[in-house]
Amino acid sequence: MKVIEIATGRELLSVKLGAGMVPSVEFDAKGRNVVVSGPGSALNAISVETGAVTVIDAGIGYLPEYRFSADGRFMAARMSRGGGIVIWDAKTWKELRRIRSETMADSSGYLGFSRDGRYVAAIDRDGCLRFWDPATGVDVHAVGKGLRPAGQVEFTQDGRVLAAAGDGTIRIFGPRRNPALKAGEGGK
User: Fold this and answer.
1) Which of 16, 89, 94, 174 could hold 161 in an S-S bridge, CB 3.0 to 4.6 Å?
2) 90 and 75 in contact (C-beta within 8 Å)?
3) What is the pLDDT of residues 53-88, one digit of tens each?
4) DSSP secondary structure letter of residue 145
5) Residue 185 has pLDDT above 50, yes or no
6) What domains does the chain contain, in order, with CATH numbers?
7) Cα gap 44→84, rounded to integer Å
C-alpha cells in the first residue's frame, strides 16, 4: 500500500501488508490514519506519519466499505458475514459494539454517518432505510420502502437530507416540504 502526496507526487509512505490484494482503503476523518481491508481477512489502521500498523480486527473478512463519522469518533462497517454493523472507536480502534438486527441482510452493503455523528444509516433486507445511534446501538428510526439492501447511502453536508440507492432509482429523504397543493388551491 502506498500513500502519495498529490501536490508533489512524492511517496509519503509504503507499507507491505503481506501477499494478496488490498481491496479497500479509507482515510480516517482527520487524515492521520488510513484503514485497509485485506489482504486476507484483516482490517488494519496505518499511521500516515509513522507507518505503524495497528491490527483492528485480524479475522473480520472482506469489507467493501467502512465509513468514519465526521467528528472522528466512530468508524463503522457492514459485515459481509452474519449481517449487521460493527462500530469501532476511531481513536483507539477498539470495537464498541455490533449492531445485530433481524432485518439486516447477510450480504455486504453500504452505510453512512450523519454529519453530526448522531446516526449511522443502512438499508435493511426489507428495503427500508434504518437509523441507529452509534454510541448506544439503539435502533432509532426507519423510512422508505423498496431500496436495494446493498445500495449506497449518503448524507448531505448539513446532515438534513439523505440519498439512498434503489433498483435504478435514487430516493431522497429529508425535511418535509410544504404539502402538495390540491386542485384549485394553487395561484400565482
Assistant:
1) 174
2) yes
3) 999 998 887 777 789 998 899 999 887 666 688 999
4) S
5) no
6) 1-61 (no CATH), 64-180 (2.130.10.10)
7) 20
